[in-house]
Amino acid sequence: MYAGKYEDTDFAGKLFRAAYDLHVGSFWGTPGKIIYAIAALRGAGFPVTGMYICYKRRKRKNTYLCGIKNNHTRSSK
User: Fold this and answer.
1) How far apart (Å, rounded) are the C-alpha atoms in residues 36 and 22?
2) Torsion angle in degrees (nearest 10) through CA of 51, 53, 58, 59
3) What are the pLDDT digits (tens) for 6-42?
4) How far is it, in rounded angstroms, from Cα 9 to Cα 15?
5) Residue 64 in contact with residue 70, Cβ under 8 Å?
6) How do the domains of the chain map onto residue ranges?
7) Is residue 56 pLDDT above 60, yes or no?
8) 65 with 54: CB under 8 angstroms?
9) What is the pLDDT at residue 42?
10) What is the average pLDDT score of the chain?
11) DSSP 12-71
């Protein structure tokens, strides 16, 4: 991917290489890849846990559900 030595490139080339290494997870080697994987899994889990919390609150009476008042009033017929 890279042509030439790192020392021979200009500032933009060095910046591009650092950004690319950070993007593919090779910036800090294997520990960096593990940290990136954990961060990605946590980020993917936040919507799931948010939906779970929202679902649990939906069962309560007279609570706010995601910013919407939820009264659970029964109509008498």
Assistant:
1) 10
2) 130
3) 788 889 888 988 888 888 888 788 998 999 899 999 9
4) 10
5) yes
6) 11-70
7) yes
8) yes
9) 95
10) 79
11) HHHHHHHHHHHHHT-SSHHHHHHHHHHHHHHHHHHHHHHHHHHHHHHTSSSEEETTEEE-
Beta-bridge partner residues of 36? none
What percent of the chain is predicted at pLDDT more than 90? Answer: 23
Write the CB contacts of 60 (distance below 8 Å, at least 6 apart in sequence): 70
Determine the residue type at 31: P
pLDDT computed for residue 48 by the predictor: 92
What CA–CA distance (Å, rounded) separates 44 from 39?
9
Strands 68-70 and 63-65: antiparallel
Cβ atoms of 63 and 54 closer than 8 Å? no
